[in-house]
Amino acid sequence: MKYRAEIDGLRTLAVLPVLFFHAGFSQISGGFIGVDIFFVISGYLITTILIGELDEGRFSILRFYERRFRRILPALFIVIACTIPMAWIQLDPQRFTDFSQSILACMAFVSNILFWSEAGYFDTDAENKPLLHTWSLAVEEQYYLFFPVMLFLLWRYGRRSTLGMIIVLTLGSFGLCEWMSRHASSANFYLLPSRMWELFAGSICAFALPHLRGNQWLAGLGLALIAGGIVLIDGTMRFPSAVTLVPVLGAVLIVLFARKGTWVARVLSWKPIVGIGLVSYSLYLWHQPIFAIARLKFGHRLGEMHMLALIGLALILAILTWRFIEQPFRGKRAFLPRQRQIFTASATGMVVFAAFGLMGVTSQGAAFRYPEGYQNFLLASERPSYHCITNSSTFSETFPLDGCFNTATNPQAKAMQIGDSHGWAISPIMIEMAKAKNISLYPANMNACAPIPGLYWPKADRPDACSQFTENALGWAAKHEIDTLILVARFTLLFEETGYDNGQGGIETNNGRISTFSNEFDPNESKETRLIKLRHQMLDRLVGLSREFKLIIVEPIPEAGWNVPGAGINLMKDIGKIPYLSTSYESYHRRNDPTVSLLHDVQARAEKGRVTLVRVDDLFCHEDTGRCDNIVDGLPLYFDDDHVSNAGAHRIVPRIVEALLSQKQGN
Predict the structure, then answer these.
(1) Beta strands 635-636 and 581-584: pairing type?
(2) Which domain of life is it from (predicted)?
(3) Given 18, 52, 156, 166, which is the most exposed site by the fewest CB atoms within 10 A?
């Protein structure tokens, strides 16, 4: 295969946007499209090599995988090996468990499946996962499990028939991608079937290239499409989807038409650009572990200059890895020159790393790193095992959830607790106390869904999911003669649409989603105008709901802003004991007082006795100190940055149960 310097230049166009995007530079809003460019390049290069071997009658599947192992594994092994000690020092047990799972998945080339399965509401922030980026390697390796064999089997029917079948598969995969972008966005992002068309696009280039000539204009258009995608595409768009055609088509045009003599080829063949392209694989491998560990160590103190320095560090490590790890394993004088040697070494490395990953998982994140006295803290930091919560993609099939109800005999009260994940977090203790008080309780919780009739998510995959879930829940409650609803939700997030900043360096990165009371969304309407409407409509909807059911509304639960168990563990390392941890009461008031005022307006407008408000901030926060408890007496009150742990729920639930029983007695 003839070397093309411009392809290494195209690799630079792929890797640098990814780095700057992951570093948080807002100007590179579409930097993630670099992965799609890599897919096209990979499909083109591998298919070109395979076609040459098939034409010459020297195709060998073992030789193919030997090349893949030499190309992929040495650098991957060294990066993981260097990441492990940093993770050992910096990651708390929960994150270390996640990290260990990712090592296991990486060794089996299924990390894309792992990260898809974890891509839920409570998943650790993506930017803090050292091996998150290996999902794209898994997609490629899964593709190369079947593609060479498929090409070999089709080749007997001729080049044209083979190309025709690849085109059919490309169209099928693209159609699946577009459908999944609307109905299963997380699976669409991570899994091979809906990503395969991008690799196939590169394969088609390998067939078409010998029949085409360079073209200045088409090569320039390809460069323009990539540049436009980098700055114009952003995370609010469905991706991958039809919009992914922009970077994919851009890469295809450059591969096909940026030939020697075109100005695009001259630009991409400039030595500094080619140099970055040559080390792009190692650079891609290094950047995410470096960024993740730095963010966990220094948090939001990292500014743009710090991130630029980290990019420089990644580049230095990439050059060293390319020179002393990648290159020695490739070429005519490769280290471990025999096929059996490279397969044996690869298998040994994979087993060793998998064994380490298994140790990390089975030891609960190497919890033995901490003194025995901290085990209770670690156990109390675990998320509730209670499963009774649903997501936008599953609610219609699973409502009501089996096994999630507490039905008392001759109950003194009967209620449905309906809410979002804040409601789910207290549900286990609600069930426990309901049983003790002879109360029939029916929890119904949906991630990110405030229980207000008619609430839509205009920019979500399923805009009507929340509205439909609430409608189903209310219909079920009416059918079963439940007259009281306990509403527990993060109402403030509807209006803030941003995570909580506690003013002490704890800035939550999980933002809210845009919500309206209409499935029509006017992008030209100002945020201020839209939120004013949202407040008025929320008031009307809750007052209207109070005519159908009695309401017990829990006022906003204090948020923490930082991951409380993680912050506690980091402090333990410094002071040698479990700390007291708290946040500002003033910041709670500043963020939540408008919501509390709105809820009081609901109570004032509703018929007397139909709406009961339950205040909970005073259960965590103290006027005399101006602080809100996060960790008290060795126990975390939250299992992340805003959801209460069982210890936190034990503060809240008795007051809710008291309000419910008082309301019944008032009848």
Answers:
(1) unpaired
(2) Bacteria
(3) 156
Strand 484-488's sheet: what is its strand order? Answer: 439-445, 413-419, 484-488, 550-554, 611-614
Which tokens hold the place of 541? 């909807």
612: helix, strand or coil: strand
Which residue in the block uniquely carries the two structure tokens 């470096």? 290
- The pLDDT, as a whole number, for residue 396 is 55
pLDDT of residue 44: 98
Give the separation between CA 596 and CA 242, rounded to whole angstroms: 43
Contacts of 82 (CB under 8 A, 6+ apart): 289
Which of 180, 177, 154 lies closest to 166 in space, CA to CA? Answer: 154
**Residue 560, SS3 per DSSP:** coil
Helices 34-55, 134-155: axis angle to 10 degrees equals 30
* Confidence class for position 117, pLDDT limits 50, 70, 90: confident
158-176: buried (b, 16+ CB within 10 Å) or exposed (e) per residue?
eeeebbeebeebbeebbeb
397 is written with which tokens? 């099939």
Tell me what pLDDT residue 627 has. Answer: 98
CB distance 355 to 612 below 8 Å? no
C-alpha to C-alpha distance for 329 and 339, rounded to whole angstroms: 12
Indicate the burial class of 490 (C-beta count within 10 angstroms; 0-12, 13-18, 19 or more): buried
CA gap 286, 511 in Å, rounded:
27
Cβ distance 583 to 502 under 8 Å?
A: yes
Predicted local distance difference test score (pLDDT) of residue 300? 62
The pLDDT value recorded for residue 393 is: 57
Contact assessment for residue 105 and residue 80, using Cβ atoms and an 8 Å cutoff: no
Strand partners, 312: none
Query: What tokens were used for 651?
Result: 């503060």
pLDDT above 70: percentage of residues in the chain = 96
Cβ contacts of residue 623 below 8 Å, gap of 6+?
585
52 is written with which tokens? Answer: 């040459």
Identity of the amino acid at 300: H
Using alpha carbons, select from 544, 540, 555 the residue that is nearest to residue 612.
555
Residue 116: other Cβ atoms inside 10 A: 18
Reference 262, options 217, 306, 230; nearest CA is: 217
pLDDT tens sequence across 479-488: 988 999 999 9
Q: What is the pTM of this model?
A: 0.80
Residues 6+ apart with CB under 8 A from 663: 484, 550, 552, 609, 612
Which residue type does 464 have?
A: D
Q: For residue 622, is pLDDT > 90?
A: yes
303: DSSP letter: -
- In the CATH scheme, what is the code of domain 386-666? 3.40.50.1110
Q: Which two tokens stand for residue 475?
A: 């219909």
Could you tell me the CA-to-CA distances from 599 to 20, 429, 446, 553, 604 in Å, in that order? 43, 24, 21, 8, 9
Exposed e or buried b per residue across 208-243, where buried means at least 16 C-beta atoms within 10 angstroms of its C-beta: ebeeeeebeebbbbbbebbeebbeebeeebbbbbeb
Residue in the structure block whose two tokens are 């991008």: 198
SS3 354: helix
pLDDT digit string (tens) for 324-351? 999 999 876 788 889 999 999 999 999 9
Nearest to 609 by CA among 559, 665, 652: 665
Tell whether the model's pLDDT for residue 570 goes beyond 90.
Answer: no
Q: Where, residue-wise, is CATH 3.40.50.1110 in the chain?
A: 386-666
How far apart CA 540 and CA 550 sit, in angstroms, is: 15
Residue 279's pLDDT band (boundaries 50, 70, 90)? very high
User: Which are the contacts of 116, defined by CB distance < 8 A and separation ≥ 6?
Assistant: 135, 186, 187, 189, 190, 191
